Amino acid sequence: MKPDKLCSIDLEGTLLKDRRLYLDLHSFFGISSQTNSKYYNKYLNDKNYTFQDWIDTINKSWRDSKKELTYERYIDILRTNFTPRHGSRQFLDKLRDLGFITQLVSGTPNDFCDMAKEYYDFDYVAGSDNMIFKDNKWCNLIHGKYFFDNKAKAMEELCARLSISAKYTIAVGDSDNDIEMLRRAGAGFLIHASPRANSMIIRKDCKDSIIPVNKFSDIITHIENNGFR
After folding, report:
1. Which pLDDT belongs to residue 34?
2. What are phi and psi of 105, to 5 degrees?
3. Separation CA 24–CA 2 (nearest Å)
4. H-only helix segments in the chain
5. What is the pLDDT of residue 1?
């Protein structure tokens, strides 16, 4: 039977408890969370400072560091940050029981997404491909493949590939880079919302098109009682 429903879902802060992966990697290279936030906020508020400018600033800081991140240490940092929220795996199991195909859409490295695929048994995964290692040591950070509107594109590309109507998709996320995906889904659920997510909703004027929830069971209840909008 052809699949006709899709759930696209974020990883860090949504299924996992923390959003600290990149903060921990920045910290390894001597970049404080305050420094990262300073440049990220500059990107949000200064039209002349682009997203790529922010990435390039972090790139330079990482490259200029005298510390080398081995693959083993990198995987250790990933494992330390892989802390599933209570009930998150059961939530995805319930969605599959309801006939949903599941897709992870994450701005985190593919190795982190691989951990999530194994733990949650995702049908499809769209990771960011932004970590490069060579000869067992740190090489570079490149622009993440899926960020902001590109998370939505990852969802829409899979819908097209599987011939699933956009109105039969749900999207679940917690942060600012999930908002466009939530807005374009048949039903978008904002869970464990970050302050940046709430700010992005105001900026994009999409408060009425996104459903705030407190727990995974709220999403299941909404689907069972209302279907799709």
Report:
1. 85
2. -125, 110
3. 42
4. 21-28, 33-45, 51-64, 71-81, 88-97, 110-120, 149-162, 179-184, 195-204, 216-226
5. 54
Tokens (6 digits) for 51: 């997203």
DSSP-assigned letter for residue 102: E
When mean pLDDT is compared over 63-67, 170-174, 200-204, the highest value belongs to: 170-174
For all residues of the chain together, what is the average pLDDT?
83
| 145 pLDDT tier (thresholds 50, 70, 90) | very low
Give me the pLDDT at residue 132, please: 53
Architecture of domain 6-18+84-226: 3-Layer(aba) Sandwich (3.40)
- Separation of alpha carbons 115 and 111, rounded Å: 7
What single-letter amino acid sits at 208?
Answer: D
pLDDT of res. 4 = 86
Sketch the domain layout of the chain as residue ranges.
6-18+84-226, 24-78
- Between the CA of residue 139 and those of 135, 182, 221, what are the distances in Å? 9, 33, 46
Q: Is the pLDDT of residue 135 over 90?
A: no
Closest listed residue to residue 197, CA positions, set 214, 212, 216, 218: 212
Question: How far apart are alpha carbons 138 and 70 in whole angstroms?
Answer: 6
pTM (whole model) above 0.90: no
CA–CA dist 149, 139 (Å, integer): 27
Rounded Cα distance, 196 and 176, in Å: 5
Q: Closest Cα partner for 227 from 194, 199, 174, 187?
A: 187
